[in-house]
Design goal:
This protein has helices spanning 2-9, 19-32, 141-146, 174-190, 207-210, 215-221, 272-285, 301-304, 333-348; strands at residues 37-38, 44-48, 57-62, 67-73, 79-84, 96-101, 104-110, 134-135, 154-157, 161-163, 168-171, 199-204, 225-233, 253-259, 267-268, 290-295, 313-322, 329-332. The model has no long low-confidence stretch (mean pLDDT 95). The protein is α+β, with helices and mostly antiparallel strands and 361 residues long. Helix content is 25%, strand content 27%. The protein has two domains: 2-65 and 172-348, Aminopeptidase (3-Layer(aba) Sandwich), CATH 3.40.630; 67-157, Elongation Factor Tu (Ef-tu), domain 3 (Beta Barrel), CATH 2.40.30.40. It is built from nine helices and 18 strands.
Length: 361
């Protein structure tokens, strides 16, 4: 799992530019002998046929990462950026970045004003992204343009992976290359199954941009059940303890409530049958099951639940992660492996007669 996640985290894949990540995943699926297809947005889809009488399931995760696009190249050769996704401005200055051009990838850094010239008022000010610029070493705009730098080029945090103590790892785009790695591992497990529902595996696009890139894939698969893999906010650091009980290294978990509440009135209250299913699956495998309920977070599952004439039964399944949307996020590999075990067990229990109805009581 660590090697696979490392491989995926080192590939740049801004929202709308996921092809290289998809190519890596596709090669792993080819190695499994698992057929796959892509739609016009770039969603990568693989279907494992199962019992047609059982509810069909879509398990998905997103390939893209947040970042920037170039909005202006100055005459000096310095580069101005536009944010793409929920990039935290307070964590930008002095970050290393990678500029992805048609001629190749170029390193650069988001400039930080020299400390010796910083006024007392500036020392505690968060610099808005519009005032920041990237220095890639170019002496002028002509040099930058000759290297392939132009308006619209994607820019991401410089891909890095840092091995921490024990099973822990820090790096760029843990959100959600960890989910991508877990879904590949789940595919490996499901290739050898003898029974179970039809399962659609989807590696989706543009989650960090508009939360809706997965919708064409979901409409194509038309599942009865959708299970989304993404992070759960770890709450075991001093700044997060008031937010919940999810801990890094505490095992996989499920979300019982999500709501964005910051201009996007959407979220997921999960189907109770799926909550019971995953509680039973965790008990059967001897796994801890962490529970999360948060305002301020949202996944693309929020939109899938409203599809079709009957709706889709939905549940967010996740792994604890620290420092979301930072240039370096932290995960415990054991949590990710446990989540694969949990998903495998839960899927094995979905069969004929699995009841998703919401009858009056």
């Amino acid at each position: 799992m660590r090697a696979l996640l490392t491989e995926l985290m080192l590939i740049p894949g801004l929202s709308g530019y996921e092809e290289r990540v998809a190519g890596c995943i596709a090669r792993h699926l080819d190695g499994l002998g698992l057929a796959h297809r892509s739609d016009r947005l770039g969603n990568l889809i693989a279907t494992l046929p199962g019992d047609p009488a059982a509810p069909s399931v879509m398990v998905f995760t997103h390939m893209d990462q947040l970042g920037f696009v170039i909005r202006k190249v100055e005459d000096s050769g310095l580069i101005r950026l536009e944010r793409l996704g929920g990039v935290p401005e307070r964590a930008l200055a002095a970050q290393a970045v990678l500029i992805c051009t048609e001629q190749g990838d170029l390193p650069g850094l988001i400039a930080n004003k020299s400390h010796h010239a910083t006024t007392p008022e500036e020392k505690y000010r968060v610099v808005p992204y519009a005032e920041l610029y990237v220095d890639a070493g170019f002496a002028n705009r002509a040099e930058a343009e000759a290297a392939g730098v132009k308006i619209g080029c994607p820019v991401v945090y410089l891909p890095r992976v840092i091995d921490l103590a024990g099973d822990r790892l820090a790096g760029t785009s843990v959100d959600d290359r960890a989910g991508c790695a877990a879904l590949i591992k789940l595919a490996q497990r499901l290739m050898g199954r003898q029974t179970g529902p039809t399962v659609h595996l989807v590696w989706s696009v543009q989650e960090e941009y508009n939360l809706r890139g997965v919708l064409p894939a979901a409409m194509s698969c038309a599942p009865d059940i959708a299970l989304q893999i993404d992070l759960l906010l770890a709450c075991d650091t001093p700044d997060m303890t008031h937010r919940g009980d999810v801990t890094l290294g505490g095992g996989p978990g499920i979300s019982l409530y999500s709501f964005h509440g910051r201009g996007t009135l959407n979220g997921v209250i999960p189907n109770p049958a799926l909550v019971k299913l995953f509680e039973a699956a965790a008990e059967a495998r001897g796994l801890p099951l962490q529970r999360s309920a948060h305002t301020g977070a949202l996944t693309d599952l929020s939109y899938i639940q409203f599809m079709g004439t009957e709706g889709v039964a939905c549940l967010d399944v996740g792994f604890p992660m620290r420092y979301s949307h930072s240039a370096l996020e932290v995960i415990d590999i054991a949590d990710l492996s446990g989540m694969v075990d949990l998903l495998e067990q839960a899927l094995s229990q979905i069969g004929l007669g699995f009841d998703l109805s919401r009858k009056p009581r």
